[in-house]
Structure formats: structure tokens, C-alpha cells
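haha ok so turns out i had the wrong file open the whole time. this is the CORRECT one, sorry everyone. sequence first:
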Amino acid sequence: MLINLLSDTATKPTAAMQQAMWQAEVGDDVFREDPTVNALEAKCANMFGHEAALFCPSGTMTNQIALKVHTRPLDEVICDEMSHIYQYEVGGYAFHSGIAVNLLKGENGILTAEMVEAAIKPRYDWLPKSSLVVIENTCNKGGGSIYPIENIRAIRQLCQTRQLALHLDGARLFNALVETGDTPAAIGAEVDSVSICLSKGLGAPVGSVLIGSQSFIAEARRVRKVMGGGMRQAGYLAAAGIFALDHHVERLKEDHAHARQLAAALAELPWVGHIRPVQTNIVIFDIKSPLTPAVLLDYLDKNGVKATAFGPQTIRFVTHLDVTGEMVEKAIQILREVRG
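then structure:
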């Protein structure tokens, strides 16, 4: 039995999702003639209360397109130091958009309007222009932390007052929504653009969607093309996304319960140090010396559990639809046999 806690990107399409994929009607999406892609984009735009949407191969691409469209060279983006756009997108903000990054230190990746306001630069010739704020909900590196909608609203009001755009990296947004009970439309009303990932906990094999106004998405489509993201018969992939949104959102609560179960078991082990608050499907914890991540991960791997190091003495587990309750129980049994 392989227990893959490496990432929720490890999910594979269910049999029902595969059936929906192969039954999809397809066309050439670059010519906007793929009816299933068009249906997915319309569904996502309507869900979040925006005018349009764009299907892309990855969340990195949707984020990078958003940065490009919202900014001009010599601008800067304000974000938390844990943000995916800073940590895990290869410095794309500089490569694609020629902009600087203004890093803030929130609580587990969560910013406040006061923090953002203090970071906005005055308009001097020798400073980059603050023009965009990016928030991540949930924050991966923050342990799957949830942005309270009150924070988002306050940041939105500030951005409107100071004429900054606000983009939401919502790669795991539905993990947050099933916990808070907020609707996609309520979140969508507070941001200029949002990206959602279909291939993490929702279980589709490929794809993310960028959502915004008609004019924003029209420009985003051009940027997608120059980045090589224009796909042809992408409806097979879009069908998986539609299926995921229709059938796999509420079940995310099961992943969260599994994550809390793992965290509770870890808290009882003498070789485990600080455990980040577990709000969704990510468990990040420190281990005590002399045990090292390399030794622990090797032991877990040999016993059929895959995980990843997340710092010098830190490990990350991620639960998802391919991790069953039986697997969680087995993983806990294996963890209890570790000797620090």
C-alpha cells in the first residue's frame, strides 16, 4: 500500500472523471471552438461573479499571467514572504513582468490591510511603483492557512482607495471555502482576479482557471498564448475540471479530517516539535534533533509513505482524495514506530 502524502498534486482521475473526460465534446480552443473549455470558463466566471475566465495548464501560469496583466515594468507586487508567486514560481515576476517584489511577514502567510498600507511606496522616481497586491488562500507554506474574508475585504477597500489591483492565488481556495462556508461569489466580489487550481485536492489531472473582467481576460488570453499556454482539444482536460467542481468540493472536508487526525497523532510523539495549526489538508511540523528529515523520509519511504522536507528540520504531509482513512491509520502506525 503506497500512502502518498507528498502533495495533493498526486491525485489521479477517478473512474467517473475519466468517463466524463472521454465523453467530452472538443474543438480547437485557440480558436475558442472547444465547447467544453468554453463551458468550464463560463462556469468558473459565473461561480465567482466575474465576467470571464481562462483555462490554463497550470496555477503558475495563471498567477504569472495575472502579474503581467495587472502591472507594468518597474512596478512592484506586495505579497507575503511565504507566497507561492515568490517561493515557487522561479522568480517569474521578474522574468515575465520586469517587476519587483515587496515581501511582508504575515501570520502563517496571512496579511492585514494595515500591513499592506504600511508597505505601499511613495511615488518617487527612484522607487518601484506599488501597483498590485497578491494574497494566497489557503497559504501552502503557512500550513494550509485560511484567509478570513474580513481580511480580504479590508485589503480590497485599501486597494481601491490607493488604486492598487488585488489578485487572489486561490490554488486551494475551495479547501478554505468548505471550512468557512463562504461562497465563491463572496470571495470573487472582493478581488480583481482569482486563480483556482483543479489538479490539487479537486482531483483533475491538469489545469487551473484565471477569472476576472472581460477586458482583463482578453489581455490574459494574449499573454497565455505568448507563454505557450494556448491548447487545442483541451476539452478532455476541461471536462475533468467541470466534474471536479461538480463532485469533489464538499469531499475536501474528508481530507481536512484526515490531516487533523495525523496532527493529533504527531502531537503525541516525542521526536515531533512544533506543529503548525492545521486548518485544511496540510500538516507542517518540525522534528527534533538528532533525527533529520533525510533519515525520517528514508524510513517512511521504505515503509510505503511518501512525504517531503519543508525546511532544515521540517516535514510536510498533504492529504487528498487518494488518501483513505485506512491509509491514515497505517501512516500513524508507521510514525509511532519511528525512534528519534
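The radius of gyration is 20 Å.
again sry for the mixup
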